[in-house]
């Protein structure tokens, strides 16, 4: 059984792009969980954890966004709509994550509730980006 590549079908994610895409979801989700822990316990260290997790998600997410932008221009016109949606969702995730990092740079309690809401939205966008990224790019049919 050999997997055939058909030029009409979308290409699979490059392995490095797949690795980069794997990081934002758990990092932004961890920031949401630590924001929830801070909301319930008022221990400042949870806010610090959130800030570091957001910074990590932004760092790796920036490379995933850049890779998606390059893929958007590198690929032909075949089924480009999914690539555009993927790029826009990744970009929105990164921009809201950056705003979230700025909110988390404030004093610990001053981050609430905006930081919690932004963490939830950013984690949701990271989930949507991972879903689109991993589900839509296939190599073709197996014969």
Automatic annotation (TrEMBL):
Keyword DNA-binding part of the UniProt annotation: no
Keyword Nucleotidyltransferase: no
Keywords carried by this UniProt record: Membrane, Transmembrane, Transmembrane helix
Stretches that traverse the bilayer: 18-39, 51-72, 84-103, 115-137
Source organism, top-level taxon: Bacteria
Domain DUF2231, residue spans: 14-133
Name used for this protein in its record: DUF2231 domain-containing protein
Organism, scientific name: Microvirga aerophila
Lineage, highest ranks first: Bacteria, Pseudomonadati, Pseudomonadota, Alphaproteobacteria, Hyphomicrobiales
